[in-house]
């Protein structure tokens, strides 16, 4: 009976490890990594759809056309396309950093250390916050008055991305009480 109980206890302990903070950070980082990978893949394989979005936002052609704001509009197709290509490049880099961070979390689960995973996650998640918070909400939403457009308004989607990245960033930085002795990175 004792041998069977030990095996059950060992299995139970392994199962319960899935409920630890490092596993949660791994899953959340991996979720954002997959999302950013799919976003970048979609923008590369379906280039035209979001190219139109960026062009309309920068041109401000579906806003209220307030003369006090319209001087901000960028109507140059070359500049619009350069901005869109920069967004796609940023998405690809962000996805790469977050995929690396996910791999580091998985490797860290085996070693019991998470310093590199936490740092890589932080860099990737801040990149998400910069893209969607600074890029879409602040610059697109306010500077280019995207909030005024009923057709080309990405503020809700940007806010969801900011919330997911910010929540993940908080979880990644929570101290873990289940760390081994001497693992000072939490």
Task: Write the SSE topology.
Layout: H1 2-17, H2 21-45, H3 47-59, H4 77-111, H5 115-143, H6 155-172
Helix pairs in contact: 2-3, 2-4, 2-5, 2-6, 3-4, 4-5, 5-6
Explain this structure:
Keywords: Membrane, Transmembrane, Transmembrane helix. InterPro entries: DUF2165_transmembrane. It comes from Streptomyces ficellus. Pfam families: DUF2165. It is a single chain. With 186 residues, the protein is mainly α. The chain is 73% helix and 0% strand. It has one domain. It is elongated, with a radius of gyration of 21 Å. The relative contact order is 0.15.
Order of helices and strands: HHHHHH
Give the C-alpha Rg: 21 Å
Q: What's the domain count?
A: 1
Intertermini distance: 37 Å
Structural class: mainly alpha
Uncertain parts = 1-6, 178-185
Number of helices: 6
Percentage of residues assigned to helices: over 70%
Major sheet characteristics: none
Shape: elongated
As a percent range, the share of strand residues is under 5%
Tally of DSSP β-strands: 0
**Can you give the mean pLDDT?**
91
């Amino acid at each position: 009976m004792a041998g069977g109980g030990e095996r059950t206890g060992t299995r139970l302990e392994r199962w319960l490890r899935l409920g630890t903070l490092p596993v949660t950070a791994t899953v959340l980082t991996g979720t954002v990594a997959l999302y950013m990978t799919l976003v970048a893949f979609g923008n590369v394989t379906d280039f035209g759809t979001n190219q139109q979005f960026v062009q309309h936002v920068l041109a401000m052609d579906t806003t209220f056309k307030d003369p006090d704001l319209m001087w901000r509009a960028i109507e140059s197709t070359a500049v619009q396309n350069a901005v869109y290509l920069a967004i796609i490049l940023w998405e690809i880099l962000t996805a790469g950093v977050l995929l690396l961070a996910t791999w580091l979390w998985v490797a860290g689960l085996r070693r019991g250390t998470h310093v590199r995973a936490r740092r890589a996650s932080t860099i990737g998640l801040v990149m998400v916050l910069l893209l969607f918070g600074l890029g879409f909400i602040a610059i697109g939403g306010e500077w280019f008055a995207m909030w005024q457009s009923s057709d080309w308004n990405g503020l809700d989607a940007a806010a969801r991305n900011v919330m997911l990245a910010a929540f993940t960033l908080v979880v990644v930085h929570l101290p873990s009480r289940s760390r081994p002795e001497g693992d000072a990175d939490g």
